[in-house]
Each structure stands twice: as structure tokens, then as C-alpha cells.
Unplaced genomic scaffold scaffold_225, whole genome shotgun sequence
Amino acid sequence: MNPITGPLIDLYENGYVNPVYQAEAQILYRSTQEIGMGRYQWGLFVVAGFRWFV
């Protein structure tokens, strides 16, 4: 338990998240794990992060 933020909450338990959203997020997570972070993904991450920062 973190004294500043309190206990950790698992958002996928106790109905915090819509079940359809949870299923879609799991599909996206699994496909990202299969593909991995290649050169294109890191480049996209940097460009999108820089754009958000600006």
C-alpha cells in the first residue's frame, strides 16, 4: 500500500470496467505482446509523445 495514493485497485475486478471494453483491451494487449515494440512502434511512440508534449 502506498501511503500517498492508497491501496492499489485492480480495475478489471468488481465491475469497474465495462465487460465489452475489457474484452477489447485484452485483445489489444495480447496482439501488442505478439507483435512487440519494433522500430516503427518506437518511432510512433516518440512522435505522438512529442506532439502531445507540444
In short: Residues 19-35 form the longest helix (17 residues). The chain is about 60% helix and 0% strand. The mean pLDDT is 79.
